[in-house]
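Workshop exercise sheet. Pairs work together: one partner reads the sequence aloud, the other fills in the structure field after running the prediction. Swap roles for the next sheet.
Pair: D.N. / O.F.
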Amino acid sequence: MCLVSSCATDQDAAVNSIEITGFGIFEYSSVRFDPDDTSSVGAKLGAAKGFQLSSQTTRIPIRPGLAFGVRFVVHGNPSDATVDIGAVLRSTNGCVLRTTGQLVYHNDSVLRVRIGEPSHIVGRFPVSEEENHCIEGPRPGTDTFELYFGDRKLAEKAFQIIKE
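Structure field:
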């Protein structure tokens, strides 16, 4: 699974909370995937345009290209600062990485977001073998998005991944 998110950080900013303002299946346009230097599993992080929440649900069918996740707002001071938010996607299934053969149950990344502005963190089922960083394809189970500021977990949302 690839992570898709919404650019230098303000070191003096304080984050008070992260509010999840929407969750479920997202539509998007013109996604571009680049290596994510912050990814703990060497996954790619994508930039996409036109995020739209198309279905608020926690039941996500396995379908190539389907994107699901959360829309969130970081609350803190100053209100226009850009901060690093830790994003973790945990899976009950695990993934055997193509590159190393290692079994992993999560992917950590760092997102740069502006305080007070809506942001997204979305997972997308791969549409090709090249896009899939796991040996096996997606399987049913539970995937959970967790959002951190420093070592404080400030928000999370779980999704049931199901076969259609």
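Discussion prompt: The two ends are 18 Å apart (CA to CA). What would you look at next?
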